[in-house]
Amino acid sequence: MRRISFQILGMVMVLCSLVGILVGFSDVKSSPLSGSAHEAPAAAAQAERDLRLLLKLGREHVDSDVRFTVKLQGESQAVSRDQAMASAEQVAQALGLPAVTAGKVHGNEVFRSEGTLEGLPVQMDWALTHLGGSYVRVMLTAEGEAQGERMIGMQQRVLDELAHAGVEAAMNAAVQGYSARQEGAAETIGRLEGDLGRTLTMRLVEDYEDGKTVSRSYEAPALGTFVKSGEQPIHMQLAVHEDSMKKSSRITIGFPVITVEY
């Protein structure tokens, strides 16, 4: 496994502003997404397996069209502003995205490009940090199974372009949609655990419940990417939120964690 370390204070602030979550994990680890000729194909195959499994789980457990989100994120070495912008433009051009624009997010300068690839929305943020490095995130979204299948192939192309620009990226993905059953959050997540347990060897690591929301995190070594909470690896997170308006529960499954609102 290749380690991607995040410098806690400055980097977490950028993560929060760009990803929209408070990251409580100190490490992100994954199968190598770039590296030797032997490492890269194995890592690409693992990533594809994980994403296909995630899409399958969405298809099996979500009644409405599943929303599929993949975030590819990592750090680049300390560079000047001009070098960072040139690298961002290089990736955007290689992917066929619009020209990069510069702006500020919570005091950090961010080079952004938004567009579509094969009809799917893509957003790239290349942020300069106060510590002199860069944090890079590319987010791809898809609605429904057909778009999800198309995105699985697309994410490897993005990883390759990021690697060419010197960014070693880790993958985080999630599927989300509503349950077909009218049942409480605890009952829904218990049913999900039973079904997923027949597919994955998994062990509960963390459990959170607040009113109509239940979230649980698991160790599942068959999956290729994980974060560390203390010394404990987390490969998968499940969350269920009871929606009183829709009278149904919204299900979110994240590999390794959920970085979208649930």
From TrEMBL:
Gene3D superfamilies: YwmB-like. It holds the Pfam family DUF1779. It comes from Paenibacillus lactis. This is DUF541 domain-containing protein. It comes from the Bacteria.
